[in-house]
Amino acid sequence: MNREEILQHFANEVYEPLKHQMLFAVEASFQNHKYTLAKTFRNSLEQLLGKVKQMQREGTKQALGYISYSMLRTELANGRATYLVEAMDKTWFMDRHPCRDTYDADWAFRYLDEWETELCKHAKKYGGRIGLDDIQRMKLRVAIHIHQYIMALARFSITEVWLDEIQFAHEIQLEDVFELRVGEYLDQSEIVYKRDVRVKDSTVIIEWLEEKKPYDYIHEVFRGINGSQGDYEGIRLQYADLSESSFNNSVFTGGNLIGSRWNKACLQEADFSGCLIQEARFEQAILKGASFRDAIAVPGIYQSEYWERPGFQPVSFAGADLTGAQFQGAYLKNADFTGAILQGADFMGAAFEGACFKEAVLDGARFSLGMHPVVQSLT
Fold first, then answer.
1. 76-101, pLDDT tens digit by residue?
2. Residues 97, 60: contact at Cβ < 8 Å?
3. Three-state SS for 87?
4. CA 329 to each of CA 78, 292, 322, 323: distance values in angstroms, whole numbers, following the listed order
5. DSSP 290
């Protein structure tokens, strides 16, 4: 075999199988320890904001527009899983006085180091035709998959309530639009949390939403909007924030609502049939008569053989009023219905294995034969 054929054989027989095996191990570690990891991640943010507080008191730091967590490939090549954490004003990377700190992501990247060691062992079977430089390039290529878990952790860790408490405690000045981003240093990054307190014109926003643009609404903030009786069929609102808004009698059928937030929203008679609602949060929302027929909220990873992305978190309806809501045929595994009002709700044909119904009100709710949940009291 020539070198190209050897590399292809190594990729098929060693690289790919071990890569998926390693990434599933990272997935298990993340899901099993996510609350502890989230606490450590928030601690790193608090440490940075403590420095920001001092700089703002001294007048050397303007209101924050961005905080970024940046993967450093040079550090990874040297065996260190160090992220650069920067707090910047509205000029972003043009900020002349950024506040910097670091975050240790060894909890995830140690699996990459172990994977590299395994690749080196198997490479010896190829008679020196696969060198350390080849392995290093493979390692840095796969690093982007591990990096996705830092994004997932950041998204899981940061909530509006927590940020408001920290901002108040540290007296941190934020711009009206503030973003927390995770990416590569001076390269592409992704929003994992966005705060936008600007006053918005509901009419303008609703006209924009009804255009159903494919990518424009992802990660956007639509809080406090009145979009009732709107037609948003097939809309893509991944990780958008629609909390405290009104969308009564609106249609979202077939939409992609993964990671969207609807906390304390008014959604009576809204139609979410056939929507993707993994990681969506409807906590304390008013959802009387709403429809989630055939909605999909599959947590974790869809299949067990090939890794594609970090697993989804379960959908949450904690504290929501779902009186008369329709869930026929919905997939709601591990969904959180803690404290929800589900009087007269219809779960016929729905899959809700592992769902939490603690303190839920289920009077008159309908379930398929043998599928009625056990409701436990909070202790």
1. 988 899 999 999 999 998 999 999 99
2. yes
3. strand
4. 51, 9, 16, 18
5. -
Identify which of 143, 132, 78 has the alpha carbon closest to the alpha carbon of residue 109: 143
What is the Cα–Cα distance from 62 to 98, expressed in whole angstroms?
10
Three-state SS at 308: coil
Question: Within 60-105, where are the H helices?
Answer: 73-77
Residue of 85, 60, 84 lying closest to 73 (CA atoms): 84
Using an 8 Å Cβ cutoff, are 331 and 351 in contact?
Answer: yes
3-class secondary-structure state, position 292:
coil
Model confidence band, residue 379 (pLDDT cutoffs 50, 70, 90): very low
Coil, helix or strand for 236? strand
Single out the residue of 105, 111, 99 nearest to residue 75, CA to CA. Answer: 105
The answer to pTM > 0.90 is: yes
Count of all residues that appear for the chain in the document: 379
pLDDT tens per residue across span 346-378 = 999 999 999 999 999 999 999 987 677 766 554
94 contacts: CB under 8 Å, gap ≥ 6: none
Which residue reads 């294995």 in tokens?
353
End-to-end CA distance of the chain: 66
Residue 260 dihedral angles phi and psi, to the nearest 5°: -70, 155
Residue 133 CB neighbour total at 10 angstroms: 8
